[in-house]
Amino acid sequence: MDPAATPSPSPASALTIAGSDSGGGAGIQADLRTFAAHGVHGLCAITALTAQHTRGVTAVHVPPAGFLRAQIDACFDDFRVGAVKLGMLASTDVIHAVADALEAHAPAYVVLDPVMVATSGAKLLEDEALEALRTRLVPRAHLLTPNIPEAELLTGMRIGDAAAAERALEALRAMGGGAVLLKGGHLAEGGEVVDRYADGAGQATLRHPRLDLEGHGTGCTLAAAVAAGLCLGKAMPVAVADAVDYVGRALRGGIRPGRGPILVLDHFGAAAR
User: Fold this and answer.
1) CA separation, residue 19 to residues 22, 31, 46, 258 (Å)
2) Are 21 and 51 in contact (CB under 8 A)?
């Protein structure tokens, strides 16, 4: 065969396993826009269908776990999955189905955004699912990206200041063995937001100005941007730092397409800058 005619290897695709947001600001919709903005082909397996908009969540429907597994298997059967991003996993059955699929397919990277509460305050994770998340998915994650309320639920610790955040970061690392990005948006630390990153090589802080803006889907977008960066060959610390900067730009360029005060991020404009 002519070497010039040999097909080049398939580019790595990013797979998001998360919920659908009918308002288009978060979940699967934000993830796929983020992947596309980074030039990465996006795949999706939908864990839940939500009826929501910029003012709240009005209903949630969780499809059968067997159908979720079929979606995941279909993606791995045909595409080279470079990284998996996990978002809303609304039930114990869903968490076990995802964990079983990850064990079967063993992706190179898993980025876990432990979605438990929506920006609007609506609860998105059933109580009985928390322990399954801790025991089956946190240990498999190459990166865990909780915000402060999610970290409090995962660790059982009260996180009210910088010292407590440092202790929580260590506790989260001990739960899994992968890297942890503890997002500091909910913690008052002057005029800055301080995100704390730790992996096996050490710790780092990512500081950026606190914006007087409330965005929808910031956590989804951050984790998806990390997954996209990993697909592009970036090292984990670089992918994390780039994703934090990307979310800041997307938030600054956000729009308010709904009647609520929450911004929808500018995913494509942020990537072009």
Assistant:
1) 10, 10, 5, 20
2) no
Q: What is the rounded CA–CA span in Å between residue 55 and residue 17?
A: 24
Q: Report how far residue 266's alpha carbon sits from residue 249's, in angstroms, rounded to the nearest whole number.
A: 8
d(CA 219, CA 225): 10
* Neighbour count for residue 59 (Cβ, 10 Å): 9
Query: How, if at all, do strands 110-112 and 81-86 pair?
Result: parallel
Rounded to whole angstroms, the Cα distance separating 11 from 58 reads 38
The pair of structure tokens assigned to 160 is: 């009210």
Residues 6+ apart with CB under 8 A from 221: 30, 31, 34, 246, 247, 250, 265, 267
In order of start, what are the domains of the chain with their CATH numbers? 11-146+215-272 (3.40.1190.20)
| 32-44 burial: b if 16+ Cβ within 10 Å, else e | bbbbbbbebbbbb
* Tokens coding 40: 């990465």
pLDDT digits (tens, 9 = 90+) for 74-97: 999 999 999 999 999 989 999 999
pLDDT digits (tens, 9 = 90+) for 204-236: 999 988 888 888 899 999 999 999 999 999 999
Looking up tokens 């730790």, which residue turns up?
Answer: 198
Distance, C-alpha 81 to centroid of its chain: 16
